[in-house]
Structure formats: structure tokens, C-alpha cells
Amino acid sequence: MADDVAVGAGRTGVVLVHGYLCNRAFWQPWQRLFAARGIPCIAVTLEPAWGSMDDCVPDLDAAVRRMAQATGRPPVLIGHSMGGLVIRAWLRSRGAVVGDGVGQAQAAQRLQALVARVITLATPHRGTWIANFSHSVNGRQMRLGSDWLRDLAADEPQALAARMTCWYSNCDNLVMPALAATYPGADNRLIADQAHVQLVFDPQLMQHCAAWVERVQACAAMSCPSAENSGSARSCGYSGAKSASVMSNSCCRSSITK
């Protein structure tokens, strides 16, 4: 499905970032959803398939720049699995980091200029046990506690957590343990009883994410401080799943009604 940026002027767009060994075609149901709601959307293909995640950053950078040029606004980035890590690596490459004379406040300003929101779906932010069996460069980078993951986290500003929503599942068959798909301090949300790929195409999760993009757009149009500063979904009226950090398995099941 072709990218859709024609409706982009003055709107908040979305860049979709696939996971390990996938490509942009993975996102076709999402592209159709966004097209139906008039949301500008680009799906990127990351290369090289087996290389370092840092080597995938130029592909994402080109897509983000294209979307920002078309809309005049920083986009929402949605990444599945490894795609969420590539998003974080891209933010690092664009200077949204602390250190070398850059403090938390300056890094937060850079982050705000780059991205409206980061939404990750089953992303192994802390690594995954199953990556121990991978011999590819990016597979090794996704091992629990890998040097690459530690270095990435060490550079990130505190403000990133406030702009991030992380969906994870208690039944993820690739990210192990399940909480490895959460990010410290972020809006971590549990979608119960969904496998690693299955959760991406949960109809209500997709609708929740589309509604969040529309609320970002509405807040941006009104220069809403909550959209620019807090990063909280609830600040713009989002009423989806409860934060995973405060709910039990029983209420997790009611967070997205099946």
C-alpha cells in the first residue's frame, strides 16, 4: 500500500516501523485504518535485515523527515518489536540525548521538536531471552542486558518516558520475560492474552492508537500544553487501557474488552 502524505499539511502524521525480518507490508491494515481517518501515514522498510539497528536509522530518518516536511509537525512514531528500538536509536542519532554538555532540559527540547509521541508494540526495551539463539548483529543487540541496550538507555533523557506508550502482553511468545517490553517510567499498557504479532492487529488496540493520534492532532492545533509537555495519554482525554503498572491480570482483561 502506498504511503499517504497528501492530506498532511497542518496535520500530525504517523511513521510505522516494522520489526525483525519484516518490511513495510506488515502495516497494511494500519495504513488502511489511518487512510480512512485522514491521518497521514508512512510505513518504512528497514535495511540491512541482519545488520546493526544503528544501520537502520537512515531509513527511518528519511521517512520522518519526509513526513515532517509534508505536515509541518513532528510525527507520532509507532514501532513493533525491534522497530521500537530503532526509533530509540534514531532519537539518539538526532541528538535527543544527555551528555557531552547536553543537559536534561536541552535534550527534552530536542525530543519535543523531533517527535509528538512514541508508541511501541511488543518492543524488547530491556532485551529478550530468545535473542540468545540469534547470531545476527541485531539479534545479539536484543539480548537481555546487552551492551547495546545499556548504552542506548544511558544516553536517553528522562523526558523520553513521558512521551512513550508501550503495549506489552503477558502471552508474548518472543519477548521474554513479558515485562522486558516495558520502558521505565513510560505509560506501559498490558494487552492480555495476545501473542507477539497477534497483539499488533488487535482491532481495539489499533483504534486506541488512531484515537490517540487524533487527540495529539487536536491538541497541537490548539497549542495544548498537555500535548507538548506532559506526554500523558490521559492529558488529552485518552481513555484506553489502564496503565499496566497499576492493574492486576483481572482488570487487564477488561482494559481492552474482547
TrEMBL record:
Q: Which InterPro entries would you find in this protein's record?
A: AB_hydrolase_1, AB_hydrolase_fold
**Keyword field contains Amino-acid biosynthesis:** no
Keyword Nuclease assigned to the entry: answer is no
Domain named AB hydrolase-1 is located at 14-182
**Listed GO molecular functions?**
hydrolase activity
What superkingdom does the record give?
Answer: Bacteria
A Pfam family annotated for this chain is Abhydrolase_6
Record's keyword terms, sorted: Hydrolase
What's the name of the protein? Answer: Alpha/beta fold hydrolase
What is the species listed in this Swiss-Prot or TrEMBL entry? Acidovorax cavernicola
